[in-house]
Amino acid sequence: MNVINTEKAPGAIGPYSQAFEVNGCIYTSGQIPVNPADGSVPEGIAAQAEQSCKNVGAILEAAGSGFGKVFKTTCFLADMGDFAAFNEVYAKYFTSKPARSCVAVKTLPKGVLCEIEAIAVK
């Protein structure tokens, strides 16, 4: 097992790693829309989905993988009313259409609107 860590994505805000590589697969922790440069969170679901995708991408890149190698994602939304707007952004990044679960949750860390985790091959 190898820990994956990059400063191009937000650091963990709890006792976990950004990702692990296990047997050629990359398992990312959920990525919320925190800008790693300054810790800010953009306004609105579209901007937040964009930042979450960028954070996932930075971790995948650090692990020697990429969006085209993702085969499963789990997405969390604070409001299922944001589903269509979230999907519009998500589709720009996850063009291979990996298997996915998308659920609404009561709250997310830092009060954000979305979170994305991914599993990919290296």
Radius of gyration: 13 Å
Q: Return the average pLDDT rounded to an integer.
A: 97
Q: How would a crystallographer describe the biggest sheet?
A: 6 strands, mixed
| Number of extended strands | 6
First-residue to last-residue Cα separation: 13 Å
Given helix and strand content, the structural type is alpha+beta
User: What spatial form do the alpha-carbon principal axes imply?
Assistant: globular
Strand order of the largest sheet: 1-2-3-6-4-5
Low-confidence stretches: none
Name the helicity range: 10-25%
Series of secondary-structure elements, N-terminal to C-terminal: EEEHEHEE
Attribute tags:
24% helix, 6 strands, alpha+beta, 6-stranded mixed beta sheet, RutC-like_sf, YjgF/YER057c/UK114, RidA family protein, 122 residues, 27% strand
Q: Can you describe this structure?
A:
- Helix content is 24%, strand content 27%.
- The chain is built from 2 helices and 6 strands.
- The model has no long low-confidence stretch (mean pLDDT 97).
